[in-house]
Amino acid sequence: MHLPTPCGPVSSHVIESLSGRGTASAPATAGGGSVLTDRDAQLALWTTYELSFRGFEGVDPSREWDIGLIELRLALESRFEAELRAVTDERVVAGVSRDGDVGDLVLALVQDDDGPHLSSYLRRDATADQMRDYLRERSVQQLKESDPQAFLVPRLQGAAKVALAELQYDEFGAGTPSRLHQDMYARTLAAVGLEPAYGAYVDEVSAISLASANVMSMFALNRRLVAAGVGHFAAFEASSSVPSRRVSAGLDRLGLSAAAEYFDEHVEADAVHEQVAARDICGSVVREDPGLLGEVVFGVICALHLDALSGVELLTRFGAMDTPGTHAAAS
Amino acid sequence: MSRAVRLQACPRGPVLVRGADVVVDADGAEHAVTRPVVALCACDRSARKPWCDGTHKAITDDRR
């Protein structure tokens, strides 16, 4: 993968440093606005994270542990996490106060979420170009599907570790390379005429799309956030099965059935995964340490919040936020 | 690999099955198990029986 194109002072600093044309001093990262919608900050974060995933052509792999870049990453993560905690605080407090089984709670939080109805629009109304736009925006996270969560495995123990490994085995193809989910997504991109290569659309996707990928890396690469990572993962899995069925139907409607394999797979796979992730992973983590419930719920609400922001962004771009059945994201 | 078949009933959801090779549906048709764990429809509303497709969530909504 080539280094992305900078889009501001922070990403310029990171990318020029990695390309060997770096300036000595890092720019200020403590901007005043929202970091969720700050494309410069999210691209800088994404680029530093990729040093721990696939890396970049021509960049020395040892730069993964470059002290200056790690410092910059920590400063960006500090802003990112603080904003996520602030915008989710009310819903996290309300979620934690609900009694009952952890698995039931996680699934109920997702089901009760009143986010924008992006998948319903994709099923019924989207044009082929709008469908491609959606698939392109999701590509930065789906082409590394489940890769961040693999970093959670050694940070868990007992029943939670067993359940995550079982779920990951399915995500990573269940022993059959052609069933590797991230590669199935690449085939979906190719089937609709998009570029399937990892990172191909990093220069085109929005700050929210980058943030949606980055939040998984932040939770997975910081051991102190492991419980938020499993909560996020469970919410992600639990908001996939029914939407996947709608996207698959939308692709069929548009004559793009060849691209539907990935979504057909996820109707069944995520009907399983949502139960395993909510009950066996989150449930076991909280059983082991009841004090982690708030962090699990924080992860769940982060996933719902980013999904809502992305849904509003795409529906607005499609001129569809006035469609009956769509709602603005809860702030 | 041989191991005991294990069933896990999920409240208001499917039945998770681990360790099975084949599931026989209500019409007698055999469905190979290709995942480490599969979810069997328990609400009778799935469009992909015998597998769960998440439709039980809509039923829960209807009852509210």
Q: Helix and strand layout, with pairings?
A:
The complex is a heterodimer of chains A (331) and B (64).
Chain A (H helix, E strand, L loop, with lengths): L8 H10 L20 H12 L16 H30 L5 H10 L6 H7 L3 H15 L4 H4 L7 H14 L9 H11 L15 H15 L4 H13 L2 H13 L7 H28 L4 H25 L14
Chain B lengths: L5 E4 L5 E4 L3 E3 L5 E3 L4 E4 L15 H7 L2
Antiparallel strand pairs in B: 1-2, 2-5, 3-4
Query: Can you tell me the overall shape of chain A?
Result: globular
By DSSP, the count of extended strands of chain B is 5
The parts of chain B where pLDDT drops under 50 for at least 5 residues are none
Per DSSP, the total helix count of chain A is: 14
Strand content of chain B is 25-35%
In CATH, the topology of chain B is named: Ribosomal Protein L9, domain 1
Straight-line distance between termini of chain B: 44 Å
Question: What characterizes the major β-sheet of chain A?
Answer: none
- From the 3D coordinates, which CATH architecture of chain B would you assign? 3-Layer(aba) Sandwich
Order of helices and strands of chain B: EEEEEH
Characterise this structure:
- The complex is a heterodimer of chains A (331) and B (64).
- By secondary structure, chain A is mainly alpha-helical.
- Chain A has two domains: 73 residues, no CATH class; 229 residues, Heme oxygenase-like (Heme Oxygenase, Chain A).
- Chain A is 63% helix and 0% strand.
- Chain A has 14 helices and no strands.
- In chain A, helix 1 runs parallel beside helix 2 and helix 8 runs antiparallel to helix 13.
- The longest helix of chain A has 30 residues.
- Chain A is globular.
- The C terminus of chain A is likely disordered.
- Chain B is mostly beta strands and 64 residues long.
- Chain B has one domain: Ribosomal Protein L9, domain 1 (3-Layer(aba) Sandwich), CATH 3.40.5.
- Chain B has one helix and five strands.
- In chain B, strand 3 and strand 4 form a beta hairpin.
- The longest helix of chain B has 7 residues.
- Chain B is globular and about 35 Å long.
- Chain B starts with 5 loop residues before the first strand and ends with a helix.
- The chains are: A mainly alpha (331), B mainly beta (64).
- The interface between A and B is medium-sized, with 22 and 21 residues.
